[in-house]
Amino acid sequence: MVHHLQHISDLIDLCRQCGIRNVVISPGSRNAPLIQGFTALDEMTCHSIPDERVAGYFAMGIALETGTPVVVLCTSGTATLNLAPAVAEAFYQHVPLVVITADRPVELVDNQQNQTIPQQEIYSGFIKQSLNLSSSNIDEVSRVLSLSTEPHPGPVHINVPVREPLYEVLPPSSAGKATFRKEIKSDSKLPAEITDAVRSASKILILCGQQRPDEALSATLKKILQEKNAVVVAEAISNIDLPEVIANTEPVIASIKENERKEFLPDLLISTGGHVVSKRWMLWMQKHPELNHWRVSEAPDQVDTYGNLKGIISGTPASVIEQLMSHFDNSDQTYFNLWQRKNNQLQRNKTEYLEQAPFCELKVFELLLKNLPEDCNLHLGNGSVVRYAQMFDFKKSVRVYGNRGVSGIDGSFSTATGVSAANPEKMNILIIGDMSFIYDSNAMWNRNLPENIIIFVINNSGGGIFRLIDGPSQHEWFEPFQVAQHPVSIRNLSLAFGLEYYRRESEEEIRDEMPIMLKKGKPVVVEIVTPADINEKVFKQFYKI
After folding, report:
1. Between 302 and 278, where is the model more confident?
2. What does the CA dihedral 111, 100, 377, 355 come to, rounded to 10 degrees?
3. Which of 35, 81, 84, 545 sees the fewest Cβ atoms within 10 Å?
4. Are 215 and 223 in contact (CB under 8 A)?
5. How many Cα neighbours within 13 Å face the side chain of 359?
6. How many other CB atoms sit within 10 Å of the CB of residue 84?
């Protein structure tokens, strides 16, 4: 007779065989056999994170930094639902997350049994593949694990019904040697429709959305900028830092007057990567359904963000764009120069404006980003933080992270701690708003909180992003229900988790003491208090210069 925990032994062994080396574990009873099995393996580094919402993002951070699949393990019931935000973010960022959820036997579900909800397909729509595990389908595990990385990365879900007794010694694995599918892509000849479009285009613009650093793509784009006169637009989260790239997308688009828009519109748009932060860019592109827009993607997606997509070219961005470059016969130097003049003028205006601006968030971000250490990871919270950061240039060696797949308030802090844990030798800087910090403060509930992280909390008295948007502040419900000012002391919250804390309220304090903070060698929270009313005025006035 097959042992009632045999499928768990086999699952754990197959995870080991496929190269998984990090397991993030939230405590529970139903997942106890899984905890027993993973912690018994010398090859596995197991991380204890009690809050499942934090655990999911922490695991995603490790996977982002290592590029390898990471297991996140939880017990049954609502614990599984608390992983959902991180699963959704991993899905849209193409992160190899292996979600393992313990479950009750099927006959107990929806039968007034404790801690049970229907868990099969619980992440439907945000998962590459789900498997409800049993001893009879253990051979499916290898295929599902392979899908976490091939043909493109993304989260997979293995739901594991577990019968009692739970606290028994696991049987030896009976799983055979795992076989993993590996898809090899060959660069095929581009269709005539796209090559003809490229040859005939004179105003070519390449748009890079959020992505991990890609040396091959950067090399190709550098060649294009030097030789082919194509315009390259790439925000900070694109991790493309080259001279003459248009990086500050939102302010550049805002500076283009209505009567100039036609000049700046490309006759060929080539896009690649994930999300773009700039709302002005999105609205501008959506006004032009006639635009000749082609997307380059490794994943089999059908993303049509602007409603003008003509087709998708499957392949690695570097190899496809390299092929396209050979057809850039008519690219126009005049169009390239037009964008460069506008961008250079914006930089001059920004410098002059900041010199006379009072202390505010805009100046805070200038100071923080100008003083980043070399070769660090920069993590950006959502809301106003990522928008302010996109207004400035970064050092070439800085790698930029942000949860822009779903862009939720949750998880930015937890993801940053996961990335930090995966590479203890690298400095990590998190810039996060006060609301996001409080919402995700359980990221500090980690016995092994990485020491290579500094957290700058921008306290603008609530949801400051809403003060920067035209419209909502005119309503009486705006402050209590949308900005939602909080009574939380950032100091007391930080100290409660044992972190070192500092409060800064002036430009001089930040400029003089930031180098000291960066040398602490332990997790530090630096609260920067900014004047909410001045933030709003300075930000909105900047877009009018």
Report:
1. 278
2. -20
3. 545
4. no
5. 13
6. 16
- 439: CB partners within 8 A, 6+ apart: 409, 410
Model confidence at 467: pLDDT above 90: no
> Which stretch of DSSP H or E encloses residue 151?
none
pLDDT reading at 187 higher than 60: no
Mean pLDDT value across residues 140-164: 95
For residue 380 the two structure tokens come to 């950006």
Residue 483 banded pLDDT, cuts 50, 70, 90? low
Q: How far apart are CA 431 and CA 210, in angstroms?
A: 18
Token pair recorded at residue 91: 């899905």
Of the candidate ranges 22-31, 61-70, 282-291, 530-539, the one whose mean pLDDT is the lowest? 530-539
The DSSP-derived string for 462-473 is S-GGGGSSTTGG
Whole-angstrom Cα distance, residue 462 to residue 482?
Answer: 9
Q: Six-digit token pair at 392?
A: 């400035």
Output the six-digit token pair for 447.
């016995």
> Phi-psi category of 407—alpha, beta or left, where left has phi over 0 and alpha has psi -120 to 50?
left
Residue 165: is the preceding peptide bond cis (ω within 30°)?
Answer: yes
What share of the chain has pLDDT > 70, as a percent? 93
Q: What's the chain's average pLDDT?
A: 90
SS3 content of the chain, % helix, strand, coil (to 5): 40, 15, 45
Secondary element (H or E) of residue 84: helix 84-93
Question: How far is the C-alpha of 360 from the C-alpha of 500, rounded, in Å?
Answer: 24
Let me know: does 232 contact 246? Beta carbons within 8 Å: yes
CA separation for the pair 539, 130 (Å, rounded): 45
With H, G, I as helix, E, B as strand and everything else as coil, classify residue 337: helix
355 vs 105: CA distance, rounded Å: 66
Q: Pinpoint the residues of the chain covered by CATH 3.40.50.1220.
A: 192-342
Give the integer Cα–Cα distance in Å for 155 and 148.
6
Cα gap 395→369, rounded to integer Å: 8
H, E, C per residue of 176-233: CCCCCCCCCCCCCCCCHHHHHHHHHCCCEEEEECCCCCCHHHHHHHHHHHHHCCCEEE
DSSP H stretches of helix in 292-381: 317-325, 333-356, 361-370
**Which CATH code fits 6-161?**
3.40.50.970
| 336-347 pLDDT per residue, tens | 999 999 999 999
| Domain 357-542, classified CATH 3.20.20.105, yes or no | no
- CATH placement of domain 192-342: 3.40.50.1220
- DSSP H helices in 401-506: 412-422, 434-439, 490-496
